[in-house]
Amino acid sequence: MRGAHRSTGGGDHDRDETLRSARPRRRQRRPQGDRAALALRRTRVVQPLVAVPGRYPLQLRVHGRPRLRRRHRRRGLLHLRRDRLGRPPARRQPRLARVLLIGHSLGGMPVQQVVLKAPERVRKLVGLSPAPANGLNIPQEAYPFLAEAAHKVENRRMVIDSSTGGKLSPHWVASWAEQSMKAVGPDAFRGYLDSVNTTDFSAEITGAPLPALVVVGENDPATNADAMNQTWMRHYPNGQLAVVGNAGHHQMVETPIALATLVEKFLGD
Length: 269
Description:
Layout: H1 11-22, E1 36-41, E2 58-62, H2 69-75, H3 80-86, E3 99-104, H4 108-117, E4 122-128, H5 143-148, H6 153-163, H7 170-183, H8 186-198, H9 202-205, E5 212-217, H10 225-230, H11 232-235, E6 239-244, H12 251-254, H13 256-268
Helix pairs in contact: 2-8, 3-4, 6-7
C-alpha cells in the first residue's frame, strides 16, 4: 500500500532507538558565581523556589537519597556541611563562590551548619519550616511515634496531616506520605530525627550577620511563627520572618507561587 511504513529490518527496536535519541535531554543547570542557590530538602518537588528561570540557577539536593542512607544513619547531620560546599568541584564544574542556601524542614539544620563552618561562602540563608539551630526538642512521649515513621507509612501520613493542620485532602496526604517513604528511607529518616533532637549549636551561630529569611505556614502547629521568634529570629540579628497563609509545613507544594514570590524577593533585595 502506498504511504505505508515499511520495515527495513530493525523493527520496533530501531523505532524505539530513534524516538529515544530524538527526545531532548534535560540537564540541571549547574549554579556558579555569586548568584547561585543550593536547596536541601527531602523530596524533589521544590522546583518553584526561584520564580525567574536563569536569574538564580538552583541546584536541588535530596538529603535522603538511597546511597547516603546508611552513612547518614551512622553519622547524622554534622557531616553534611562538608558535603554542601567543602568538597572539591566535579570535573568541569566550577567551584561556587558565594551561594544562597535554602533548607526545608530537617534540611534547615545542615544549611545553618554550612554558615557556621564557612560563613564567607554564604550570601543569604532561607529556612522553610526549618529545624532551628537548637534542635527540635521533641517531647519524650512523642518520640516513639515519630521514630516509627521511619518505616511505617501510616505514621508518616499522620505526621504530614498534623503538620499541615489537618486541612488537606486525605488522598493528597496519603500520596505525599508514599512519596516521602520513597524519597527518604528509614535509615536516613531515623538518622536525621535523632540528630535534630540532640544537636544544639545555637550558641555558636547566634549573632551571624548574614540576611536570613525563615518562612512558616500558618497551619503548621509546631514550626510556627512563635517557635521561630524564640529561635531563628534570636539567632540571626538580620533575620526576617514570613508567614504563608493557607499553608502548613510544605509550602512548596501547598502554596508554591506565594512561596516563590517571597523567596525571590528576599534573594533579590
